[in-house]
Inverse folding.
């Protein structure tokens, strides 16, 4: 089972006029500094503040008639997308999340009229709750990443990026469960087989990276991160994204919390943009020299549903404490 260009084109037809075709803007700073044109795809400007609206709208649109409601587990943004899409179709939505999910994200989901169930300290417990609701109440379950319609929805980002810049040499894609990377890679490689796809995760609790390394889906410990949207496992019974990421990603790169901190500052001071930690992992991969640019490159700024208090600390160069770890503050230096 996989997701093809035809599935992604079908998703694009569902999304037309509903999820915005977001701007892709140049980063003069990155181009000057690293010598190649560099593009930022502004998915944080979607109506829910993140790209996950695409997959959620496509998956909810493709549910059969007569369904009573939907449920999902989420690190925040998928829940927001599902809540939005369910409200649009007049369906009840129950979003299951762990205690690690920041309060702004919980509030955002409730604001779209969904019920929120908080369970445990990992995505796995949230997933178990969502499965229980699905079985007991007949709600349709929509995986945040391991669902063909979700992957196809996210893949429409790849279509738009290549339509805007057909000569892209490399795409840097934030990587968690891999729905985004799988969809974008499927679209981009179908259009231009020689494009390089690099997945980027944080170096603590990167489940897809650990799974690709092990050659099969494995579990990792979840920890708090500046890139909180990249937390969570890929599911030991992963059906789609593990194989697609294995087959379509050319490389996976990991960045540290300090590197995410610095990239958030760069995006703010140089590009004057505000985004979640999860979005800047691609910038961090370049800044640290872990990825070398060999032609026009683009990354996806995936969302902006961040904790503004943490963000303010980052841009003013103060310490940030995440669970048992403290990132030592330092002012931005170009
Ligand atoms: C979900 C999410 C990601 C990662 O997407 P996956 O499909 O799980 O790999 C990246 N950034 C943001 C803001 C997200 O919400």
């Amino acid at each position: 089972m996989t997701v093809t260009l035809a599935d992604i084109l079908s998703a694009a037809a569902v999304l037309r006029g509903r999820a915005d075709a977001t701007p892709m803007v140049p980063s003069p700073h990155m181009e000057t500094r690293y010598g190649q044109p560099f593009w930022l795809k502004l998915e944080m400007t979607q109506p829910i503040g993140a790209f996950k609206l695409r997959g959620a709208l496509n998956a909810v649109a493709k549910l059969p008639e007569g369904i009573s409601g939907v449920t999902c587990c989420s690190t925040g943004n998928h829940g927001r997308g599902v809540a939005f899409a369910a409200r649009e179709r007049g369906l009840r939505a129950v979003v299951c999340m762990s205690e690690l999910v920041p309060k702004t994200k919980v509030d955002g989901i409730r604001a779209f009229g969904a019920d929120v169930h908080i369970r445990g300290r990992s995505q796995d417990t949230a997933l178990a709750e969502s499965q229980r609701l699905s079985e007991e109440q007949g709600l349709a379950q929509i995986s945040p990443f391991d669902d063909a319609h979700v992957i196809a929805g996210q893949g429409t980002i790849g279509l738009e990026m290549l339509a805007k810049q057909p000569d892209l040499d490399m795409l840097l894609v934030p990587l968690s469960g891999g729905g985004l990377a799988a969809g974008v890679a499927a679209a981009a490689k179908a259009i231009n087989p020689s494009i390089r796809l690099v997945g980027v995760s944080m170096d603590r609790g990167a489940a897809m990276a650990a799974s690709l390394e092990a050659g099969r889906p494995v579990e990792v410990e979840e920890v708090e991160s500046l890139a909180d949207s990249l937390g969570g496992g890929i599911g030991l019974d992963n059906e789609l994204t593990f194989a697609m990421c294995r087959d379509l990603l050319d490389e996976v790169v990991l960045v540290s919390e300090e590197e995410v901190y610095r990239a958030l500052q760069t995006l703010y001071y140089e590009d004057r943009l505000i985004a979640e930690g999860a979005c800047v992992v691609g910038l961090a991969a370049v800044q640290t020299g872990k990825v070398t640019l060999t032609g026009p490159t683009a990354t996806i700024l995936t969302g902006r549903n961040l904790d503004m208090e943490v963000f303010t600390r980052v841009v003013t160069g103060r310490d940030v404490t995440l669970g048992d770890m403290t990132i030592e503050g330092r002012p931005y230096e170009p």
